[in-house]
Design goal:
Blueprint (H helix, E strand, L loop, with lengths): L1 E5 L6 H7 L27 E5 L3 E2 L15 E2 L6 H18 L4 E5 L1 H16 L9 E5 L5 H6 L6 H19 L48 E5 L6 H8 L7 E5 L10 H17 L3
Parallel strand pairs: 1-2, 1-5, 5-6, 6-7, 7-8
Antiparallel strand pairs: 3-4
Length: 282
């Protein structure tokens, strides 16, 4: 079982690899410094291919506090043209380094793969997808892409998107000046949402997905890992509800826009990775 692994904007393949493995130097809780990959069952024979995005980038907010350069991005604009160009790069990568059974992503990597899968389903339905499972971590789907695919995007959805993007920059950058003991991400009383409330598909943070046809939903098995304190929580929930609910697993790690290293969180994510692997041949 082999996963392609795609990082977030302003980081790198090596950073994503470290974030999902062990790094005692960056973790205050030294009793359990491991992320989820060391907890995977070796008998499952799950491997990961971490690659760098094609374009050099400035570091994502707060990243340079912990990780040295270089940093990369899959695109720098936000247009459909920019994102579709990255799809061509992805096709070439798969041809050179594949095949892969699954794909695991963080942040911008999620936007790349979710958009790629939907266009592939619509434009080349006669061809098999290059991935049989997908693991999305703290990521959403580009709203310009949704409009290009024919899904109506309300002004409310645009407002959520813009507001959460700004809030993410502010919260992520605060790590450089944060005092010990201060909550880096959104506290429970600051949330503009109730993470425990049931989701109404006619209004997923302003996006009505209740009538979206199956060919504009991701149909392969998916795992969605997100944090309810993440300013981009709305985007993660929107993406999850554009996937096949019968083949979807969702997990709130109750943190922010990151991959926490708490023991219970790491074990749960490892279980979800193993579930996705089991779905390859299901």
């Amino acid at each position: 079982m082999r996963f392609l692994c795609l990082h977030g904007k302003g980081t790198s393949g090596s950073i994503f690899k470290t974030q999902t493995d062990q790094d005692t130097s960056l973790v205050p809780d030294l009793t359990f410094p491991a992320s989820f990959r060391p907890l995977l069952d070796p008998s499952k024979k799950i491997s990961f291919d971490f690659i760098d995005a094609p374009f050099p980038s400035s570091p994502a907010a707060g990243v340079d506090v912990f990780y040295p350069p270089p940093y990369y991005a899959f695109w720098h604009g936000s247009s459909v043209k920019d994102i579709r160009a990255s799809h061509r790069w992805l096709q070439e990568l798969i041809a050179q380094r594949g095949p892969y059974d699954g794909v695991m992503m963080f942040s911008q990597g999620c936007s790349l793969i979710s958009s790629y899968l939907l266009y592939h389903q619509l434009e080349t339905p006669h061809l098999p997808l290059p991935f049989r499972v997908a693991v999305f971590i703290c990521g959403g789907l580009s709203l310009p892409i949704l409009e290009d695919l024919g899904i109506y995007v309300s002004q409310e959805a645009w407002d959520w998107d813009a507001r959460s993007a700004v809030e993410l920059q502010v919260k992520a950058a605060s790590v450089a000046t944060m005092r010990p003991g201060v909550e880096r991400w959104i506290s429970r009383d600051q949330m503009a949402w109730d993470p425990d409330a049931p989701v109404d598909e006619s209004d997923v943070f302003g996006l009505d997905v209740s009538g979206v046809p199956s060919d504009v939903r991701i149909r392969i098995p998916t795992v969605h890992v997100f944090g309810s304190k993440d300013p981009r929580f709305p985007a993660a929930i929107q993406l999850a509800h554009l996937c096949d609910a019968s083949r979807r697993r969702m997990f709130d790690h109750q943190g922010g826009h990151d991959i926490p290293r708490k023991k219970d969180v790491s074990r749960k994510i490892a279980e979800l990775i193993e579930w996705s692997a089991s779905m390859v041949d299901a």
